[in-house]
Amino acid sequence: MVTGAGRTRVLVVDDHVLFADSLTLALSLESHDALTVAPGDFGSVAALLSRIHRFRPGIVLLDLDLGSLGDGRRLIEPLTRSGVQVVVVTGSTDRGRWGECLDLGARQVLSKSGPLSSILATIRAIGRGSPVISAEERRELIALAREQSRERLAARERLERLSRREAVVLGRLLRGETVRQVADALVVSEGTVRSQVKAILAKLEVSSQIAAVGLANRVGWRPPA
């Protein structure tokens, strides 16, 4: 929303108080109508969205770390559907994650480690109706995000091939246990555990325990309870 005299109403959604307050001050000095909302003050994403909509911002500067509310990407689509311009400002350096934000409708993704002037320039460009990211870079980031999504899906499908006992063994490897420790905990021989590890590696299509653990961690896999 644009208020009087060309002022843009900007909402900063970020739990990092010092960063958010500094950004809000800089926006106010550029004559924007700026306010900070701390996600931690809300019990649910729905409550946070309701508060954002009551402010009627033209632009939301959104952090991806919403604390107890989880991943800020959950807000991008509902905000953009309501006509809000979303600019993600994040400490994450994962460019695949940046591409996911763009694919969900964010106008731009900026690093918190970058200069404040980049954020202010982006706000000015949006206010003028100018592009804030090249079409080529946008395509590349979205393509990277979609490729990583396909890889995660394939990894999850391979993890689903594990038997329950193999999943238990992998879960213990995730906790940093050695083969001997796994064998002692499950009251089986080390040879039995080594055979199970070999089966795990074959099903996950990896060549080492480290690679198996890395694959499970990348997709957020957890062993059965």
Quick rundown:
The protein is α/β, with parallel strands linked by helices and 225 residues long. The chain has helices spanning 17-29, 45-55, 73-81, 95-104, 116-128, 135-159, 164-174, 179-186, 190-204, 209-218; strands spanning 9-13, 33-37, 59-62, 85-90, 108-111. A five-stranded parallel β-sheet has the order 2-1-3-4-5, with helices on both faces.
How is this structure best described in words?
Keywords: DNA-binding, Phosphoprotein, Transcription, Transcription regulation. Residues 9-127 form the Response regulatory domain. It comes from Nocardioides albidus. The chain contains ten helices and five strands. The chain is of the alpha/beta class and 225 residues long. It folds into two domains: 4-144, Rossmann fold (3-Layer(aba) Sandwich), CATH 3.40.50; 160-218, Arc Repressor Mutant, subunit A. α3 links the parallel β3 (59-62) and β4. α4 (95-104) packs across α6, α7 (164-174) crosses α9 (190-204) and α8 crosses α9 (190-204). The longest helix is centred in the middle third of the chain and has 25 residues, at 135-159. It is elongated.
Which descriptors apply to this entry?
single chain; 225 residues; alpha/beta; Rossmann fold; Arc Repressor Mutant, subunit A; 2 domains; five-stranded parallel sheet; 10 helices; 5 strands; 11% strand; elongated; CheY-like_superfamily; Response regulator transcription factor
